[in-house]
Amino acid sequence: MPTPTDEALATSTPALPATTLPVLSGAQMAEALTRYRELQTMLDKAMPDQIMLLDGKLFRKKGYWRAIRIAFNLSVEPMTPYAQRTIHGTLDDGTENYVYSVVYRAVAPSGASCTGDGTCEAAEKSKGRMKATEHNVCSHAHTRALNRAISNLVGFGEVSAEEVYRPDGAAVSGPEITTAPGEPIFVSDITSAVGISQKTGKGWTNYTVAFTDGRAAATFDELVAKRAEDYKDRHVPVVAHMARKGRYTNLVRLDPADQPLNIEQQDSIAF
Length: 271
Description:
By secondary structure, this protein is α+β, with helices and mostly antiparallel strands. The chain has helices at residues 4-12, 26-46, 62-71, 134-154, 222-233, 263-268, and strands at residues 51-54, 57-60, 75-78, 84-90, 96-107, 113-121, 176-177, 187-196, 203-211, 216-219, 238-245, 248-256.
């Protein structure tokens, strides 16, 4: 039975304000992030064609985000039956610069959900040899929204390749990474071929670097070739950044796996 003192304390002690507390502890959040990064690495290795290199940064394409959707058992649907179509000025040829906008919602089995919006305009699809159509503009908006909804829910807000836009249209046709950063391999062999350019009359040397995982890539950069030779001689594990261009695979960059180098550091290495 409460005493007079208890009653006095109950009436005189102010109630604590309601606060928002994290559901996960710091350790649990770190574990969730670690597991997501592990999944990233595995998917990067399994689907190298779903990674794009743009302006020196890696972006994951729609196939990657669909794999994430399956891995996390997400339900992802548009929030409206149709994308919204608006007009934002005109194109260089005088036709309408139509814009499609759509919003998707991604829902986890726990009930947690996030939305993602996506837009695309005809101007983006009218660069170089590209030609805008109602279908490809609308479809790209849907892709961006779906990617963003999934990323917002489980991908820590990562930007997808389809979301990146540059006025020159270069983002659309950027090279694709064909090796997964973070997966160390070793240089197994280096060969070279020489020739004369028919356009300039100057000589060239093309180096082919082979790796222990069975892949190989070529480069005209002597510095990269020397670096590969050094890593081979010292048996240094490496991360190879490759880019596919047509039927060729180019060696973009080569880093020691335990200490990735930035561009300035790579250029300063003496051989």
